[in-house]
């Protein structure tokens, strides 16, 4: 009983810690994105409130909470109300299996630095990312607006198509780790990070993960100059905020996924493992912001053609080749 | 613990299914169906099949139902005003039929003497399933993959825009 | 105590419900969803028996059922699009061209 209580308390502490860190990081990523984009466009970005604009995220949250939560007249009310939560929820739940440091030994107990080390951790993340599409689609559909519907359908087709390439790109990683558990995948990279072993898989993964995150080179679901704001055109107040919480936590999820699957997780010289992990996550997030600042948006049909005709065959070929190499080496 | 979980999941699944088959709006039906699939996936997990649970979420909730949603949205069927289904007299026999089917099955299952035992602790690691799939059943896996390829081609042929002089 | 027949009963109820859905609904997509539901109740039976008999084969079968369901969904939904193109509706009462 005592044992169970302790492990329960540990899980709760870890959950609280992760949620706190992720939500704060998400809020400050918004600020960082605005600042970096500003610098890239030769302007300052937010710098009025607090030193260097540091209190800006708080003001954004207060603004969003106090705004009117508007529901369109012909909207499907309940679906409209819960869709944004779905986006945020799927992004936040992904952190349950992400290991951020090697197991810690404290008072003679070994504490794994992950909320729950599922032996199907990779599939869990994959499943959650495939469920993330529901928030977009249902939100867009329930708004009962043609722009929202267009955005939702684009988002649906895009996410569904690039998920295939994403899954196939991760097959070589699972092959070399011989496990779906994220902790074991990181353990398997103690000498070489996977990015050196599977460079092609890494490139395919990065492209498809960008499409999954619906961020700028691939932001057709919310392309401002074509369909107003896509699936969240009709949203306002905190529900719009929830979509953004989802988007930026998703950015951190992607950073964590890239780190765990390809960049060697917490492994690194000199510095403590947690610091390495957070640094790698932030580096990946920076690359995404950089891409947003410098890449134009392709046309929608180009996106689909690229996904189905280039990325998926390439990913399949990559699976075959890396499998053959594994067999040849053994 | 398992008992409580089983009853909660079973309740969720059956309620979701009931709502799914009675909703007029197909999008609502999809939402309830996905909720039911979730409960089913957790039930698989409870039965010691984590891999099957993951498949259930990824394949059913994440791909097949999303495809349904796409078709519903593309064809613009969502707000359906016409009353669904014929009147009481026409679907009364169907209720009777499926209810008796259900009762018979449940009775048959309960009659089996081996079934009274508590379901054992069984846990199947993903590795074991993988070894079995790509070892003993590799031919079947290949056949299924061919079937998926044919389905892709078939869906493409059926769904492609009609060229000139065709189908008129 | 939860035995295998609890799970099997859930599967049976699920199957009966989806049979009812298939027989009474007129929207072809909802009928199709009910068929998926039937496949799922079969999956539940497979998994619970696999757990009951301590045997791996049930789960392998679930894998194949899911692959078949995915293929079926792709072809079936493409058929519905083709039908909608011709009839502007997917009400099964309108699918009567082969009716004699």
Secondary structure layout plus pairing:
The complex is a heterotrimer of chains A (330), B (168) and C (100).
Chain A: H1 2-40, H2 56-66, H3 77-93, E1 101-106, E2 109-113, H4 121-142, H5 146-177, H6 182-187, H7 194-197, H8 199-212, H9 224-227, H10 237-261, H11 273-294, H12 300-329
Antiparallel strand pairs in A: 1-2
Helix pairs in contact in A: 1-10, 1-11, 2-10, 3-4, 3-10, 4-5, 5-8, 5-12, 8-12, 10-11
Chain B: H1 2-22, H2 26-46, H3 50-75, H4 88-111, H5 126-134, H6 138-159
Helix pairs in contact in B: 1-2, 2-3
Chain C: H1 4-24, H2 28-52, H3 57-87
Helix pairs in contact in C: 1-2, 2-3
Task: Report what the structure shows.
The complex is a heterotrimer of chains A (330), B (168) and C (100). In chain A, 68% of the residues lie in helices and 3% in strands. Chain A has helices at 2-40, 56-66, 77-93, 121-142, 146-177, 182-187, 194-197, 199-212, 224-227, 237-261, 273-294, 300-329, and strands at 101-106, 109-113. Chain A has a two-stranded antiparallel sheet with strand order 1-2. Among the domains of chain B are: 1-79, NADH-ubiquinone/plastoquinone oxidoreductase chain 6, subunit NuoJ (Four Helix Bundle (Hemerythrin (Met), subunit A), Up-down Bundle), CATH 1.20.120; 125-161. Chain B has helices at 2-22, 26-46, 50-75, 88-111, 126-134, 138-159. The longest helix of chain B has 26 residues, at 50-75. The model of chain B has no long low-confidence stretch (mean pLDDT 79). Chain C has a single domain (4-93), classed as Orthogonal Bundle (Helix Hairpins). Chain C is built from 3 helices and no strands. The chains are: A mainly alpha (330), B mainly alpha (168), C mainly alpha (100). Chains in contact: A-B, B-C. The interface between B and C is large, with 82 and 67 residues.
């Amino acid at each position: 009983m005592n044992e169970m209580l302790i492990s329960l308390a540990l899980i709760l502490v870890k959950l609280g810690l992760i949620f706190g860190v992720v939500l704060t990081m998400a809020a400050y990523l918004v600020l960082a994105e605005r600042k970096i984009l500003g610098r890239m466009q030769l302007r300052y970005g937010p710098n009025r409130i607090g030193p260097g604009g540091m209190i800006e995220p708080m003001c954004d949250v207060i603004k969003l909470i106090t705004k009117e939560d508007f529901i369109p007249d012909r909207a499907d009310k309940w679906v409209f109300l819960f869709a944004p939560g779905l986006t945020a929820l799927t992004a936040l739940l992904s952190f349950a299996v992400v290991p951020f440091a090697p197991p810690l030994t404290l008072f003679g107990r070994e504490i794994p630095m992950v909320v729950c080390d599922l032996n199907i951790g990779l599939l869990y993340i994959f499943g959650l990312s495939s469920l993330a599409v529901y928030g977009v689609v249902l939100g867009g559909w329930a708004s009962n607006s043609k722009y929202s519907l267009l955005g939702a359908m684009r988002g649906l087709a895009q996410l569904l198509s690039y998920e295939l390439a994403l899954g196939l790109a991760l097959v070589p990683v699972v092959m070399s780790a011989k496990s779906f558990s994220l902790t074991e995948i990181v353990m398997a990279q103690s000498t070489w990070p996977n990015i050196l072993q599977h460079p092609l898989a890494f490139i395919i993964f990065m492209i498809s993960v960008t499409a999954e995150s619906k961020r700028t080179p691939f932001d057709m679901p919310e392309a401002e100059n074509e369909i107003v704001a896509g699936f969240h055109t009709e949203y306002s107040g905190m529900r719009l905020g929830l979509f953004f919480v989802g988007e930026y936590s998703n950015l951190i999820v992607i950073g964590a996924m890239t780190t765990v699957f390809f960049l060697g997780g917490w492994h690194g010289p000199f510095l403590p493992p947690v610091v390495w992990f957070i640094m790698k996550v932030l580096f990946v997030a920076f690359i995404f912001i950089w891409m947003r600042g410098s890449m134009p948006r392709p046309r929608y049909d180009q996106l689909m053609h690229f996904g189905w005709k280039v990325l998926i065959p390439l990913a399949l070929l990559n699976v075959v080749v890396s499998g053959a190499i594994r067999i040849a080496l053994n | 613990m398992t008992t409580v979980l089983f009853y909660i999941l079973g309740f969720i699944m059956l309620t979701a299914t009931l709502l799914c088959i009675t909703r007029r709006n197909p999008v609502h039906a999809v939402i309830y169906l996905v909720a039911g699939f979730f409960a089913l996936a957790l039930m698989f997990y409870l039965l010691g099949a984590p891999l099957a649970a993951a498949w259930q979420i990824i394949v059913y909730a994440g791909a097949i139902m999303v495809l349904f949603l796409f078709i519903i949205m593309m064809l613009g069927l969502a707000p359906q005003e016409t009353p669904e289904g014929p009147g009481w007299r026409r679907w009364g026999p169907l209720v009777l039929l499926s209810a008796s089917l259900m009762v018979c099955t449940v009775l048959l299952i309960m009659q089996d003497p081996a079934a009274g035992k508590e379901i054992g602790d069984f846990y199947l690691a993903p590795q074991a399933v993988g070894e079995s799939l790509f070892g003993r059943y590799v031919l079947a896996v290949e056949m299924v993959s061919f079937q998926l390829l044919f389905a892709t081609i078939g869906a493409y042929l059926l769904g492609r825009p009609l060229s000139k002089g065709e189908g008129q | 105590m939860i035995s295998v027949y609890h799970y099997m009963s859930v599967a049976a109820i699920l199957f009966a419900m989806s049979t009812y859905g298939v027989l009474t609904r007129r929207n072809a997509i909802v009928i199709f969803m009910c068929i998926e539901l039937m496949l799922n109740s079969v999956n539940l039976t497979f998994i619970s028996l696999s757990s009951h008999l301590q045997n791996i084969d049930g789960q392998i079968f679930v894998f194949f059922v899911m692959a078949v369901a995915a293929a079926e969904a792709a072809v079936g939904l493409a058929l519905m699009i083709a039908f909608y193109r011709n009839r502007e509706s997917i009400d099964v009462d309108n699918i009567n061209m082969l009716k004699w």
